[in-house]
Amino acid sequence: MLNPSNERLDYGEILSPPVGYDFNFAVATTYSLDFDALVGACLALGLSAETDSELLNNPVCLLEALRTTGDKIALFCENGQIHMPGKVSPLYILLEQMVYQVSNVKARKNTSYSSFHPKFWIIRYVDEKDMPLYRIIILSRNLTFDRSWDVSFYLDGIKEENPIYTEKNIPICDFLVFLSKNLGNTPLEKEKIRKIKKIIEELPYIHFRVADKEFSDFEFIPTGIPKSSGGEYSITDYPLFSGYEGNIKGTSQHEIFIMSPFLSGDVIRFFNNKKGTVRNSDYILVTRRESLSKLKKEDADNFKIFVMKDDVIDGESACEFSRQEEKLSESTLNGLENQVVFKQQDVHAKVFAYEKNLYLGSLNASHNAVCGNIEFMIKLEGDKNSLRAEKLFSEICGGELGGLECPFEPASLENIQDNSKEENNILDSEIKRLCRLNPSGKVVEKDKNYEIYLEMEDFESDYQMSIKPLLSENEDNNVVLAKEMVFKNLCKEQLSEFFVISVRDDKKMVQRVVKFCLGNLPEDREKAVISSVIKDDVCFFRYVSFLLGENMILSALESSEGDVSVYGEDGKKKVEMLTPLYEKMLKTALVAPRKLKEIDALMDAISEDGIIPDGFKELYATFREAVKENG
């Protein structure tokens, strides 16, 4: 069930449409976001490709994945937690229509900001008869390239004739209602709200099935959002944390298993006190070594505590980097570099085994997670023997504890040093505070270029703060944060609602990407970006060939063979390429005319700047007319 050697789930495989289905629409959530990880998700959803495949290096394939999924994804993340990419590209403009930020209110009983922290997907696929299949994915993993150990679980559901699953799926519906309120009033956002409402209307008819034989039932658990029936979802309403806020011990328990990277003393103490006078019990806590500094000895004296071995934390990083260094150095496409950086790994999964239930998802064993954050968990009901603490832990260890293959070792609360990065947390909080002011601005055309005017409320900080447009390479546009700011000399492909905020103190700097609403953006801005990839007629023919390919993935790989530079001024090679393309178009017009719609969309998306080769429009119009006459 949780054995990392045999039971691994690949993020891309989970997202890819099942056989016989096409991707229709998805709503997703993450706390932190890496743009290139989102690009990988688009490849999986739109082209059924692996998120780390060679297609990341193919500009035609990458552009098609982003272009065709932009209006089909609504991704919500914590405001101020988009990672700064190592290499930026104008293609990131195509991500604007997918990404929406959520700012949560302050946590109860706590002065720090609470977080929008769920890791969740609901995906709607459709078959050739337009019948839907739904997939719900609950994870502990953010949409980033983090290497840490995470947990994921997914269920598929098909549509039944009668709405008999209303009660089961109400928490999902309420969660979607909450998320849709974070969308705006643009035509695209209104269309996404309409699609989310359609999902909510269908969910009472959707029967989700647990494929794993170990589990007999399940329950969806969002927390920190309003209930349609009144009140708010809280994890303390469920047996796992029942009595926590009132400091009530509740029924004594023989076994408790907790895996959580981040801890609070009061939460662990709540579980620790459940042991009472019970003998021969197993209380197991798996966490990060640095998180133990949050605990006192009496908080966890009934727990056996385990942390990941240092050589495991560092080992994959060293091994993988030496193996991938050469490959990564060549991973560049059209200015978008595959920024997979092999970092240290550690525990990041959130797992609670309690009574006969297994809780998985985004919620840490911390005070903010329980009392303030927006989270999403799933409760799986199973057999008591399958969910024994020692059995679960031995599965995660991949064998006997203490063996050479075991990645964990026992830990003590004695002589634990606090190595938490408090400075980074403070700087992050400054970004969160700024984001909650919701700055906005406008774009003004000036001297054949553009300027962005950005305004915000008065903001005082003890730290040095600056801001710049994400796509601007001009250092003059990295300005000190002020009530009114101007960013000058921007071309159309540099106009983006994404900005970089930098916060510094004497020792450290934190950078985050944020999205601010801009008015007066040129309507043809995305066309300019697409034209920057399809920059000549050879690239155009490659793209058309890719769209017409019977196997889009194979076609994409074939189209990347050889360099554009081989097509000389005499045009001989170009002519050689046109003949098979025309043959493909003839075949498509006869057997798969619907694919011609994709060429329609491509031609509409390209700027009128001479990229479409001479004569192609006339030829294509003939094909379209022939298809029309043949019905």
Outline the structure in words.
This protein has 631 residues and is of the alpha+beta class. β5 (120-126) and β6 form a beta hairpin. The model is unreliable at 317-342 and 562-573 (pLDDT under 50).
Ordered list of secondary-structure elements with their pairings:
Layout (H helix, E strand, L loop, with lengths): L10 H5 L6 E9 L4 H13 L11 H11 L3 E6 L3 E2 L15 E4 L17 E7 L5 E8 L12 E8 L6 H15 L6 H16 L3 E4 L5 E9 L31 E5 L5 H8 L9 E6 L16 E5 L1 H20 L2 E2 L2 E2 L13 E4 L2 E5 L5 H5 L3 E8 L6 H9 L10 E3 L11 H14 L4 E7 L2 E7 L8 E6 L9 E2 L3 E7 L7 E7 L4 E7 L1 E3 L5 H9 L3 H12 L3 H8 L12 H20 L4 H10 L10 H14 L2
Parallel strand pairs: 1-2, 2-4, 10-11, 11-12, 19-26
Antiparallel strand pairs: 1-5, 3-25, 5-6, 6-7, 7-8, 9-17, 10-15, 12-18, 13-14, 15-16, 16-17, 19-20, 20-23, 21-22, 21-24, 24-25
* Total number of helices: 16
| Backbone CA Rg | 26 Å
Low-confidence segments, ≥5 residues, pLDDT <50?
A: 317-342, 562-573
Strand order across the largest sheet = 9-17-16-15-10-11-12-18
Give the overall pLDDT as a whole number. Answer: 83
Strand % is 15-25%
Kindly report the oligomeric state of this protein: single chain
Q: What is the 3D shape?
A: globular
